[in-house]
Write a structure and sequence with these properties.
420 residues, alpha/beta, seven-stranded mixed beta sheet, disordered N terminus
Amino acid sequence: MCSIVEDDFGDDGGEHAMKENTPQLELAGNEICRKCNSEPAVLKLNLKDPQCRQCFLNYVRHKFRASLGSSKIVRRGSRVLVIYTGTAENVTLLDMIRFGLEQDSFKQLRIVPVLLFVDDSFVTQTPERRQEQLSRRLSVLRQFNFPSYYTTSGSGKYIELPQNDSFSSTDFDQEEAQLIHTINAVRSVTSKQDLLQQIRMQTYRKIAKELSCAYVFLSDIGVDLAKTLLSNVVLGRGCTLAQDVAFCDDRDDTVKIIRPVRDINPDEIQNYLQYSEMKLDYLPNVDHFGDKPSLQNLTAAFIDNLQQSFPSTVSTVFRTGDKLDAPKSSDEQDHVHGKCCFCGALLDYRGSKTLFATEYSRLVSSRINASCNHDEILEKSKRMEVDAERAVNGEAGEKHDDLMKNLCHGCRNIFVDIDK
């Protein structure tokens, strides 16, 4: 019978929060694992009893299986599209899936995994550097004997990855050139990153439908989702906060985005890779705009600093997302409010006092100056109220009104940042 219970991985105050990245606690000489009481302990996580290698692996794998089992969202026998990135978190997820499929019938993981490598390195890398990274990622991918496919961000087609190194991405030249042109047309790095992220999510859902997969597995862990939550607040994507960090993002009717390792912390990831049954290779995280100033990069740096000094605060930020309610989607609401034609979020800008205040403040800054007298200010103020309301509702009288009416506030910010 499994000796790991719910209390081992729940969110009981600060006990299970992401811990400070300090050197691993030293074990006393000849200390025995407190789980099995038989094997020598090899590690001691913060606020945890000493564990042997096998008990630790069982503990982490149980967190993964429990997240799937408790939600009961993923149906047995479903085809699942697992997004491959090659990072430590991603390799850990793939290894746990492989381990679950190799178990006996009682404990076997009942899914059919399909791997998808979405390449967007062409956005910032030279062809030589890109080919070098592609070879490394394929070598890491071949540790797992799953059906694997390749596509590029923004593309609606895919190809099956061969088992040898004879691979070329020339089939996607047209899609790559179009995406590079779009990215280069965006002025700020903040909007470039946001645009690329939204295109990635579109690609995941599009290829999942092509491969008849009802679910997409991402390898985001808690610290990643804490960055996402704060970044989306800054980017004006408050209406999708709950779905962007939740276990399940169900804004699409046919494809659900699942984050099954969101409760695993970085310390557990590193120890899993160290003590797993077989040596696992992985690659560092790559952010194409990570060295440039942007709202996302500043937020990520802030969270990384918190993780070093106040890890419990990072856990609090992440867990806050679980307490947010996602907007309820129904046929009636979709008909009245509609959905964003780019990211799929429910449109909630109509009657928004926050957006009205933001737009009104922008108009005041551009129209009111020291030379205006009292009467002019009153007259312009009334006009600005009307213009601000029209701008919020996408009725500013510009030629792109039809598009603006069908975009959420976050996607509008991308659009207005594009050089026309």
